[in-house]
Amino acid sequence: MTTDPEAVVRAAYHAAEGSTMDVPGFIELFAGDGVFNNVVAGETNRGEHLGDLVVFMGNQAPDIHRELHRFHVMGNIVAVELSIQGTFTGPFETPAGIIQPTGAKLDIPTADFWHIEDGKIKEFNCYVGLSVMLDQLGVQPDFASAVTTSTTTTN
């Protein structure tokens, strides 16, 4: 097993690809107390839940692929500029219900920051371009309702 930070991160991306989808292998790359922070959504996953977002994205776009544009290795920290790509052919579960698949092509700008210790992922912070993703899914913000709500709550 390699302890090279870039190799560990590349292995994690490989395990999360739609063509290989190895969720147990993805989880095994983390330290016992490792965390996966979906920063934009405000979610933190640990232990057996480290692969939850990988499964979620794989269900939404079974052909999911991460196009890795740039790697920046700074000791044990790896910063990656990438695009999450795929076809929206699976359901997208939301708190309001399920958005049905449309076949839309996804190309979501993302920045990931990985902290590696002793060859294991200690912390993974993922910043997904959520507004771009929602636009590509055809989900538009409801500004009118937000304005109405803010007007009624401030009066």
Provide an overview of this structure.
The chain contains five helices and eight strands; from the N terminus they run ααββαββββββαα. The protein has helices at 5-15, 23-28, 52-60, 130-137, 143-154, and strands at 30-38, 43-46, 65-74, 77-87, 92-94, 97-99, 105-117, 120-128. A six-stranded mixed sheet has the order 2-1-8-7-4-3. It has a two-stranded antiparallel sheet with strand order 5-6. 23% of the residues are buried. The mean pLDDT is 93.
Order of helices and strands: HHEEHEEEEEEHH
Classification by helices and strands: alpha+beta
Beta-strand fraction estimate: 35-45%
Tally the helices: what do you get? 5
Cα-based radius of gyration, to the nearest Å: 17 Å
Low-confidence stretches: none
Short description:
By secondary structure, this protein is α+β, with helices and mostly antiparallel strands. It has helices at residues 5-15, 23-28, 52-60, 130-137, 143-154, and strands at residues 30-38, 43-46, 65-74, 77-87, 92-94, 97-99, 105-117, 120-128.
Task: Name its key features.
155 residues, alpha+beta, 6-stranded mixed β-sheet, two-stranded antiparallel ribbon, 5 helices
Helices, strands, pairings?
Elements: H1 5-15, H2 23-28, E1 30-38, E2 43-46, H3 52-60, E3 65-74, E4 77-87, E5 92-94, E6 97-99, E7 105-117, E8 120-128, H4 130-137, H5 143-154
Parallel strand pairs: 1-8
Antiparallel strand pairs: 1-2, 3-4, 4-7, 5-6, 7-8
